[in-house]
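Continuing from the previous page of notes. For each protein in this section, the sequence appears first, followed by its structure tokens. Read the first protein now.
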Amino acid sequence: MDGFLFQASIYLGATVIAVPIAARLGFGSVLGYLAAGILIGPVLGLVGGHETAELQHVAEFGVVMMLFLIGLELEPRALWDMRQRLLGLGGLQIGGTALAAMCIAIYALGAMVSVALAIGLILALSSTAIVLQTLSEKGLMRTGGGRAAFSVLLAQDIAVIPMLAFLPLLALPKTADMVLSDVLARDGTGAGAADATAPHEAAQNFIAGLPGWGATLVTIAAVAAIVFAGVYLTRPVFRFINATHLREMYTALVLLIVVGISFLMTLVGLSPALGAFLAGVVLANSEFRHEMESDLAPFKGLLLGLFFITVGAGIDFAELFGAPFLIVGLAMMVILTKGTILYVLGRAFALRGRDLWLFTLSLAQAGEFGFVLIAFSDQQNVLPHGLSERLLLVIALTMLITPLLFLLFEWISKRMRDTADSPDPDRIDSTGPVIIAGIGRFGQVVNRLVRSSGFETVVLDHDLGAVQRMRDFGIKGFFGDPTRPDLLHAAGLGQARVLVAALDNPDAAVRLVSFARRERPDLHIIARARDRTEVFRLYQAGANQIVREMFDSSLRAGRYVLETMGLTEFEAAELERTFYQHDRRSVRELAELWDPGIPITDNAAYIARARELEAELQTMLLLQLEEAAHSGQTNKDVL
């Protein structure tokens, strides 16, 4: 027990120190976890060896849970809509990378064809855990590049199944030394290696006892069982659990679903992650979806973090320092080769600009399933042992480099023009008193109201698809970057009375407002903002009126709450109006104290004034309620 508590303290201590530091420096949590693992493993030697390998098997459930949660966000129809990218983009990436790695292994390293093919299949996979975690953290999952990366990762997870079935066919002939090693392993000398691959052995032995058609039927039955249980059994079970009013039973049930599906998939030789994803998709329309998400999120985060730490702790620096140029060179060759193939495929599938670079750089590493395939290949005598050790190190290094590739993407993205690799902008042939820059959900409502009221508008947007959809509904818009001075002047900036800055990109919105204010000091500028920080930036840039996109709807929801709590419609509306006016005045005051060079949490003057304003608001609303109550009582007395 003391050993367990010591190990747990080391892992948790390294996590709470390294991860916040990495996040504050802008490196992301994944690099923090990897750095923590390197610190407590190869550097300080506090953990490692057999314990770390065993812990990694447990931590891999973080990947399983992550795919289950992702599946909950996808309806079956959405998955069907992804079929072209799954089969086309994903299939070509796996095949192209495997072929390229195979050729390099044959001609550059002199490997046998069977060994080279196994290497190619292993290196074709990318890190689902690191990529999806980073995409979610940075808000890139819903971008074109993020969706393409997810499609490829899902295709790779599916491809693990035929890879596990195909690799034994590449087995090398056993030598006398290998036979002796097998005997020693059975006698207990090699228990660690045997234990590490025990689940795969169990699966293979289960399937091996069946004819080909029998194995196929078992696999189909396992998948069908997951679908059947998800559609017909989960709702009654959740309702039964709900009747107990025991919160912890929800958590236990969701964990049972994930662990049970993983066991079933392993039993028939399939990927537990794929099974969990399928279950998530089946349950995507369930009314208990949000309950399952909230129950699993903490486990997913902790296990994924633990997995990344074990990757860092498992890096063999002795092997690395023994042949540093070879190992680092191989890792860089993997990244460059995969990156080149990804870039070509991305362009072929119409990815451009930032989306293309995100797709290329996010998937250029090898992945955690490579560890599984290498362990399985060792068991099946597909790879020589020395080569397996170096492959494990190469994969770990590419995973360690991945957060740096995301930083490279951010650097490239900031220096790219919004119109990079996009079609030429439209020729603007009309002007109007109102220019609307950005035709997303916010800009659409503004445009409809203004045009329906009889005023002409000129709409600009850099999203060609959005402009084309507008045209389908008979609304004229122009494609082009609204921050370009020539397009703004062509749209009538010199004569316009109002400019509405409704761009999704906060930096682009600030640039637009700054330029328009310099060009037209008398122009009335209305800008959209997401939060107070963006409000302050737009205020300093020169916007006259700034609308927080969620503010008015939140106020309306708050008014409904007050009415439900017993206030009259008039009383709730008056409180809403007071809150609105006070907030506008507060934002103006706080904007004067805001300093972009100082985090808000470190700005003492800002925090002090914000507290004073909040106390002032509470006093105003309570006094208004008391006056309303007194007025109501007086009216009753008069009556």
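Done with the first. The second protein uses the same format. Note its length before scrolling.
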Amino acid sequence: MPDVSVLIAGQAGFGIDKSGLIIARIFNQLGYRLYVYRDYPSLIRGGHTFSIIRAAQGKVGTHKDKIDFLLALNQDAVDLHKERLKEGSRIIYDADTVKAQGTGVNAAKIIKEENASEIMRNTCIIGSFCKTAGIDWQILENVLKRNISREIDVNLKVASRGYNAVDKISGIERLKQEPLPVVTGNEAMGLGLISAGLKAYISYPMTPTSPVLHSLAGLSKDFSLKVIHPENEISVILMALGFSYAGERVAVGTSGGGFCLMTEGFSFAGMSELPLVVILGQRPGPSTGLPTYSAQTELNFALSAGQGEFSRLVVAPADAEEAYYWSGACLNMAWKYQTPVIILSDKNMGEGAYSFDINSMPAVKEEGPAYWDGKDAYKRYLNTETGVSPLAFAPLKGNVVKINSYEHDELGITTEEPGLSKTMQDKRLRKGKYLEKELENYPTVNVYGDSGAATAVICWGSNKGVCVEAAKELGMKVIQPAVLWPLPLQKVKDAIGQSKTLICVESNATAQLSGLLMCYGIKTDKQILKYDGRPFSLEELQEQLKDCSSIK
């Protein structure tokens, strides 16, 4: 099966990220399925940055350590990644700045002769890569025209010079598959929210959720969205609660440090029963930690954030399709049950780029909440069988829509009376039971591989891709809960079935999913943990799973 990995590397500010997506889209035109991993420091300029583009015949969601092509824009690109080379690997480099064995092109000279911007060296190297790999010029030209909006004529000249400066060495096979859109997990989340009726998105930029803000801002006119960047995270969540009170479907995006500031407002949403969706992009901590790297460190935080006890939904999509589906489902659930919802993301899923097959998941559409019928006096917190009160929004002629962060009665009037306080708390928690029941009809737990396998790997979020592929080679099955709260316990137990060994794979130091499972009597036999900010590579996880396969 065709499986090609390309690494492009250089200094931050060299346009490596954009270049990686262009290379992915070139492979996409050849019928390949893609995953792009990005690695960059928290610097605007300087420091080493790279992208690994993996192209395969079937769906992929992880990168490999070993690469087929290294595209080097500076010397560090060769020096830092030479261990990734294997027999038959090709290095394509800027001969004016890099010393290496391989295919050199005088990119700096070409840039000077074409009076082009320094950043266009990456376009030159991509041109040389395409010729070396036997990719038709027309494919490269079409991709560049679709993905570069500024100075396209100069870019095409530079790419053509790079293309013609080298010889064809290999021929990458064209596959008989139709191209799919290449989108990031962050873009997919934004599109899923729009499909479920999003009206406002509010965020203070924090890696790795900042691209959701940027992508939705670019779509705001097309979908009549209000996209707002306030001065801090406290303003973000309070503004979102205002939109929710006014009947506007709203979501916010942040990372762990920003969500710390939001937790009082998050608890306010729980008490006042205001629908709210929070995209929580995880990264290594504590505090600032590794701000441009990835982790799965906020599960415990998401489960317990906010003072007091109230119903919530916590999901962790694993790839672009799940990000699209679950973001829409979460927005619907938030409004149906008038409760806050957390979407746990991370850099590897959110900023990773995938071939996106929208037909692989159930359709997403807006689902309306229960509205007030207009009869009798309006009670914002009417105590119903399900705990869900009919909604109405201000201004409401002859009635007041009163919300309250204090304990309150059905009208929203503050109370400290013990019996009524218990009644209203029971009402709020009862919603969670009905939410849990409805989730039985959703794909809350996914199983991959041989359902009867003796060894099961359980994982969550972005680790699904690497776990599914690694486990397949070893005859193991993979269990991936997409919903982490309320935990779909019976589905998890059914997925484990008769497996004798349960291995938990997580990107944190304390095995947070494993600990959650233990609370319900499910003991994992081994935890494979990675917490240096980088994702598991396919080869790395395969070796660690092999070591676990002898567990008795």
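What the second structure shows: The radius of gyration is 25 Å. The mean pLDDT is 95. We return to this in next week's lecture.
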